[in-house]
Amino acid sequence: MVEGKFGTLINCIDGRTQLPAISWIKEKYSLDYVDNITEPGPDKLVSEGKIELLKPKIDISIKLHGSNLVVVSGHHGCAGNPISKEEHLSQIRKSIDVIKSLKMPVEVIGIWINEEWEIEPVTE
Ligand SMILES: [Zn+2]
């Protein structure tokens, strides 16, 4: 196992989202590092159960980096998933359920990255 406390983020490829999401997660969960798995519109992908390409990456983060937190995000102005905030929140909640259904030994949470590039936790 590598040194340091890791978390896992399933985030958009959108460069505007990376630093705010990673910084918030590190601070909120007292982590040293956040492994970053990116896809355009990740909340759409995960909520639809299209996780076959993501699963091996999540596994590496959990098994080899010891992550015990998986975060799924959605964000304002997403080019890969241009829907309303309410629809994003619904997809993020569904995504949490999809990741939880994998029965991995981790906490699973969702975040919404708003128009100010601030993080809002998404509760179920
Ligand atoms: Zn996006």
Global geometry: globular
Instruction: Give the termini distance in whole angstroms.
Output: 32 Å
The number of domains is 1
The main sheet orders its strands as: 2-1-3-4-5
E-strand count: 5
Name some characteristics of this structure.
single chain; 124 residues; alpha/beta; Beta-carbonic Anhydrase, Chain A; five-stranded mixed β-sheet; 4 helices; 36% helix; globular; binds zinc ion
Protein topology:
Layout: E1 6-11, H1 15-28, E2 33-38, H2 42-47, H3 55-63, E3 69-75, H4 85-100, E4 107-113, E5 119-122
Parallel strand pairs: 1-2, 1-3, 3-4
Antiparallel strand pairs: 4-5
Structure notes:
It is a single chain. The chain has a single domain, classed as Beta-carbonic Anhydrase, Chain A (3-Layer(aba) Sandwich), CATH 3.40.1050. Helix content is about 35%, strand content about 25%. The chain is built from 4 helices and 5 strands; from the N terminus they run E-H-E-H-H-E-H-E-E. Strands 2-1-3-4-5 form a 5-stranded mixed beta sheet. Strand 1 (about 5-10), helix 1 and strand 2 (about 35-40) form a beta-alpha-beta unit. The longest helix is centred in the C-terminal third of the chain and has 16 residues, at about 85-100. The relative contact order is 0.22. The model has no long low-confidence stretch (mean pLDDT about 95).
